[in-house]
């Protein structure tokens, strides 16, 4: 009887709690428009892409060969998608075309971020054949980094003495190759993407479905070591890595219909949602196992990526827990703690992201990809009726 009484009391208490307000997408997008108008005025040099803010408060920009070069153009495409205003289309085209030469870049595994987040969104929204042609060349460049004997796309040329490191981030670049498979009719892009995803699923995850950051292979595909580069420790759960993982396997299910990818995404989402170190506002610490929690920096970028992934995941699972967590994250990101004031924050939308704490790089600063995935999540949220 006592158990039943407690359950009824809990239910009554839950039902009496005031409903949380919906995220006001229109309000947040109007702010994004105003802030990014200032961003465009402050950034005229098409060879320097807004990236973050240096410790001195100075804007940090990078060249087109930096892995984040596609995110500014991609963010502008999202503003065009929301507004249908040609001024955003024109700005997005300029900053997208500024990355074009990277289609020949065979030294990076990040061409998906660089080309698909920019040209991919542009092609999706305009069907401009020029964008398609550029991406197909870029996909061929990225495919050169796949070694069929190992069955994975090589991330870096070397890592701590290992010659074939593969990072969880690589899952995100498969979307580009899967698009190329459809656009070109060349099944090699599809085959190498599923092979990479399968081997990552096999070797990159712990029993609790958390992901290692770096897995190092020999020339036969044998795992030599499981390490981290940006996490707190080799065995810790680096927050952005978990976000890449849930996003990547949700995307793989969309593109292939293979339930093993959906199940993997669901299990990664459970790991994130149920982690005892996930704060009440649902914005994770930069690493779920960072040594000085709660006195550790949060990572708004990991939160934004996770929210976007969970919103897509919800469309497949109809599990309201996925939607609610994404909504809670967006509600927090859209609040005063994480959203900048107009004209501040060097015109980035979000504050409090972490690039690499171990290298003391971009710690507790705005970062361009946080803005990109936040805008993507807002658009996805606006399309869901619940």
Give a structural overview:
Residues 1-21 form the signal peptide. β1 and β2 (59-62) form a beta hairpin. By secondary structure, the protein is mainly alpha-helical. It has one domain: Alpha/alpha barrel (Glycosyltransferase), CATH 1.50.10. It contains 13 helices and nine strands. The two termini are 35 Å apart. α5 packs antiparallel against α6, α5 (111-126) crosses α7 (174-184) and α9 (239-256) runs parallel beside α11 (300-317).
Give the overall average pLDDT.
95
Element order: H for helix, E for strand:
HHEEHHHHEEEHHEEHHHHEEH
Largest sheet: 3 strands, antiparallel
Total tally of structural domains: 1
List how many beta strands DSSP finds: 9
Radius of gyration: 21 Å
* Unreliable residue runs: 1-16
Percent in helix: 40-55%
């Amino acid at each position: 009887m006592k158990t039943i009484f407690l359950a009824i009391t809990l239910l009554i208490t839950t039902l009496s709690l005031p409903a949380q307000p919906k995220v006001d997408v229109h309000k947040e997008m109007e702010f994004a428009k105003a802030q990014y108008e200032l961003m465009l005025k402050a950034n005229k040099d098409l060879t320097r892409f807004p990236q973050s803010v240096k410790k001195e408060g100075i804007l940090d920009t990078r060249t087109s060969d930096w892995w984040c070069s596609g995110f500014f153009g991609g963010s502008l495409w999202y503003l065009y998608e929301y507004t249908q205003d040609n001024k955003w289309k024109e700005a997005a085209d300029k900053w997208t075309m500024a990355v074009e030469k990277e289609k020949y870049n065979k030294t990076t595994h990040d061409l998906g971020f660089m080309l698909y987040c920019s040209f991919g969104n542009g092609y999706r929204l305009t069907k401009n054949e020029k964008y398609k042609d550029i991406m197909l060349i870029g996909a061929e460049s990225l495919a050169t980094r796949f070694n069929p004997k190992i069955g994975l796309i090589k991330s870096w040329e070397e890592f701590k003495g290992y010659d074939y490191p593969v990072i969880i981030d690589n899952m995100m670049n498969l979307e580009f190759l899967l698009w190329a498979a459809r656009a070109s009719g060349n099944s090699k892009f599809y085959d190498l993407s599923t092979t990479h995803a399968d081997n990552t699923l096999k070797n990159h995850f712990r029993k609790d479905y958390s992901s290692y950051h770096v897995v190092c292979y020999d020339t036969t595909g044998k795992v030599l070591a499981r390490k981290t580069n940006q996490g707190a420790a080799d065995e810790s759960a680096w927050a952005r890595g978990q976000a890449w993982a849930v996003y990547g396997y949700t995307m793989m299910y969309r593109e292939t219909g293979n339930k093993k990818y959906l199940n993997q995404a669901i299990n990664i989402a459970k790991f994130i949602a149920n982690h005892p170190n996930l704060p009440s506002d649902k914005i994770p610490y930069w690493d779920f196992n960072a040594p000085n929690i709660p006195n550790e920096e949060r990572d708004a970028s990991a939160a934004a990526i996770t929210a976007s992934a969970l919103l897509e995941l919800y469309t497949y699972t109809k599990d309201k827990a996925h939607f609610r967590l994404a909504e809670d994250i967006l509600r927090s990101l859209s609040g005063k703690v994480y959203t900048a004031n107009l004209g501040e924050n060097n015109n980035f939308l979000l504050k409090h992201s972490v690039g690499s704490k171990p290298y003391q790089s971009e710690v507790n600063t705005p970062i361009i990809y946080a803005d990109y995935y936040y805008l993507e999540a807002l658009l996805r949220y606006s399309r869901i009726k619940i």
